[in-house]
Amino acid sequence: MSVEARERRQPWILLSPALGAVTLLLLVPLAFIVVYSFWLRSAVGADTPGFHLDNWQRALTDPFFRYILLNTLKIAAITTVICALLGYPAAYFIARSRGNKLILLLLLMLPFWISYIIRTMSWINILGSSGALNTALMSVGVISEPIRMLYNEGTVILGLVHFLLPFMVLNIYVSLEGIDTNLEDAATSLGATRWQAFLQVTLPLSLPGLAAGGLLCFVLGAGTYITPLILGGPRDAMFANLVFEAIITQLNWPMGSALSLLLLMVLGVLVAIYNRYLGMSQLTKGLG
């Protein structure tokens, strides 16, 4: 074998373990889900192999599924906007801090050391009828009986913000950290106020990080089912809860496969649009 041929094959040899893992753990299961989505669930509870479009027709035309999908996108969008409003000041403070940024970043990463389910269930002890907030309000005489705060859309959004806010802060921080602070000083030396320098220099340059954080929060928020399952009520189900219900409760794998692929395609379109106009490099920076 020639040296040139060996050099051409070397990158593929190095990539082969990663490609094998992606194929076995992602592509093969996804192929099974695609095949399952065209099967049918019989009346006796058995899956009927074949190429049937019944599941897809129901997933695309049923008003209930369409309502849950639109509600899921709405909740994910509201969560993303709140994370952006809360996360940008925190990321700006960390990026412009003159102290030890490592400590601030460590504090930001602390929630990841605790199970997502435990963090979500902690809101029950805070907002429940006998939770910390109701107990405190009743002890000072603000209310005479507990307020019902749980199991609604607001608590679902609260739980999602609690879960996704660190992802937003990290992406914005990475973007702000790459901006030369001398640009702001130059703008102020030319007569701009600090606020004008921020709006016309810092904010536009940090928009890629904000967009990357927004995409990450939106996709993770739209694909979650734990938060609405724990903190939401019967009317606050999200699309992933329908997938969970179809596969785990009803054991209807074909319908659950079609629903999961529908959600994957909707979120995939959003990712493709983001990649077309902004690219995935900023997102990989934030995750790294």
UniProtKB/TrEMBL annotation:
Membrane topology of the entry: Multi-pass membrane protein
Residues annotated as domain ABC transmembrane type-1: 69-274
Family: Belongs to the binding-protein-dependent transport system permease family. CysTW subfamily.
GO cellular component, one term: plasma membrane
Entry protein name: ABC transporter permease
Primary site of residence: membrane
Subcellular location: Cell membrane
Transmembrane segments: 12-39, 75-95, 102-118, 155-174, 210-231, 251-274
Originating organism: Rhodobaculum claviforme
Name of a matching Pfam family: BPD_transp_1
InterPro entries: MetI-like, MetI-like_sf
Entry keyword Transmembrane helix: yes
The organism's place on the tree of life at top rank: Bacteria
GO biological process: transmembrane transport
Alphabetical keyword list: Cell membrane, Membrane, Transmembrane, Transmembrane helix, Transport
Taxonomic placement: Bacteria, Pseudomonadati, Pseudomonadota, Alphaproteobacteria, Rhodobacterales
